[in-house]
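Weekly modeling sync, notes
Attendees: S.R. (lead), two postdocs, one rotation student

Agenda item 3: backlog of single-chain predictions. S.R. asked that every request posted to the team notebook include the full sequence so nobody has to chase files. The rotation student volunteered to paste the first one in as an example of the format we agreed on. Action items at the bottom.

Example entry:
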Amino acid sequence: MDTVRATQPLCRLEEIPDGAATALDVTLAVDGGAPERTSLIVLRHGEQVQAYLNVCPHTGSRLDYAPGKFLLQRDTLICAVHGAVFEQAGGQCIAGPCRGEHLHAVALRVADGAVHLAERA
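Predicted structure, as returned to the notebook:
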């Protein structure tokens, strides 16, 4: 995935509770396409964050059950629409209708307590 170069932080790290997830709206160019507004799932583990497009590979629906609210259980993320279960680390579906497929990862970085899109060449 290519990202649009962004200098503005998406949010402050402390705005995401440790061990939780939130949704952030960003502008991205996915797979070389034109930049468009989309939702990200941002997961925090201590000082580290990881992100995926907020899109279930089964039907293209959002994974949150309410805006920015996700079903997390142990080290998994559960699609609120179908119950598909994804590993938080890696985004692979391990149970449900899209078993074996992956969430689309988006690179982030943390700098000075702020979360940013990672720049790609």
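Discussion: group reviewed the output briefly. The first strand starts at residue 2 and ends at 3.
Action items: rotation student to repeat for the remaining queue; S.R. to check formatting next week.
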